[in-house]
Amino acid sequence: MEQNQENPLKQYFRQFKIYIRIPSGTSYYQPGVVKFTDKGEIGILPMTGKDELMLKNPDALLNGEALIEVLKSCVPAVTNPRALLTNDIDALITAIRYATFNDSLETTLSCPACDAENTYKLDLQYALDGMEFLEKEYTVGLSDGVMVTVRPHAFPDLLKGLHAQFEQSKLARMVENETLTDEQRKDMLGKAFKELSILTFDLMLSSIVCVTTPSDQSVKVTNKTHIKEFLYNIDKLNIDKISDLVKEINRIGIKRTFTAKCEKCSHSWESEIDFNPVNFS
Which of 5, 7, 22, 268 is the 20 to 30 Å CA partner of 129? Predict the structure, then answer.
C-alpha cells in the first residue's frame, strides 16, 4: 500500500531555479524536441549528485552520454537532446551550472602587454544576460554566384570536436616524451595535422544545408555526396567564405568575450571565455 502513496518528501525536491531563452529561438526545432513555456523560455533545474558524477566521467563525456543524461535531468523540457544545436547546448550547460552553483567561471590569462598572469572570476549570469540569437537562415555567396546555405553545428559535431580536443591534448603529452626521436615526433604531428584537416572538412560539410546555382535558383542541391565533391573542387577563397560564416554562426549565443584588465600594468584587452563542456565541472 505504501508504494502507491505520494512521497511526503516531494515538496523538498529540487525546483526550477532560472528560466532562459535559447539562441535558436522557439521555431527552429521539429515538434517533440523542446517544450517551451508561453513566454518562449525553458526551465532549468540544478544538478543532482549523480549528474555531477556523470560530468566527471571522461568516457561518458566523450561519447555524449554524460551531456545527454544531465540535459534530461536538469532540462526536462528538452525531450531529444541529440537534436540540439551546439549553440543551445552551450547556453543550457552554462545555465545548469549557474542554477547549481550560482558561481563564477575562473580563468587565468597572461597580459599581452607585460606577460603578467591575472586570474579573473566571471559571473555566469553575465554570459547568459549577453546572449545573442540565431537568424532563421544563413547564406553566403561565392565568387561564381553559387549560394551556400549553412547552419550551426549540431550535437554529433560537438562530439567530434570533443574527441579532437582529447586527441590533441593526448598528442601534446606524447610528443613531450624524451625517448622519441625527431623523426617520430614529425610523423606523429603530420598524422595529427592530417586527421585535423579531415575533421575540419567533415564539420564544414555537415553544416551545409543546401547549395543553389545561379543558373536555376529553384534547384537546391542537398545531396551530401554532390556537395562533398563540390567542396573538393572549389578554390580556397570560396572555401574560406563558407568556413568563416560557419565559424561566425557557431559563436552566436552566450556572451563569450569580456574586457580583461591587467592588475600589474593596467592594460585592457578583449579575451575569450572557455565554455567547453569538458571543463564544465
Answer: 268
Residue in the structure block whose three cell numbers are 534530461? 72
- pLDDT tens digits for range 199-219: 889 999 999 999 999 988 788
Within 131-261, residue ranges assigned H as helices are 155-175, 182-207, 224-232, 236-250
For 128-145, how does the pLDDT look when each residue is reduced to its tens digit (9 = 90+)? 999 999 999 999 999 989
Give Cβ neighbours of residue 129 (< 8 Å, ≥ 6 apart).
Answer: 255
Q: Rounded distance, CA 62 to CA 161, Å?
A: 9
CB 45 within 8 A of CB 14: yes
Q: Which residues sit opposite 148 in a β-bridge? A: 140, 211
208: helix, strand or coil: strand
For the chain, how many residues are written?
A: 281
